[in-house]
Amino acid sequence: MLRFLLATILTLAAAPLLAADVGLSISVGEPGFYGHIDIGKTVKPDVIYAEPVIIHRHPSPAYVEPIYLRVPPGYEKHWRKHCHEYDACGRPVYFVRDTWYERTYASRAHEHHSHGHGHKHHD
Fold this sequence. Notes:
The protein is α+β, with helices and mostly antiparallel strands. It has helices spanning 2-20, 79-82, 98-114, and strands at 35-37, 67-70, 93-95.
């Protein structure tokens, strides 16, 4: 019993140290990215719903610019539950389709980031 207790204490004490070493960074344009997409001057994206979704309307009649988000599958159906994760509960939101993100947006992001890399320039 004492060994089990000691092993449990050591495991619990080491858990924060192990978790501190774990890190993940995903950038816009990568397949695992979810979040705000700046469409800029690109073609309007293919969206899941024709009208933006708004969870909490602002009390003032001021116009709030819609944002475009890519969210994990199913989040758009239960947006009230997930909007706080994207700081978007009071914003009109268009959910972009994964196919548009992967074929159009992500491919352009990769072209933009890789443009000029790997080329030697001579003076």
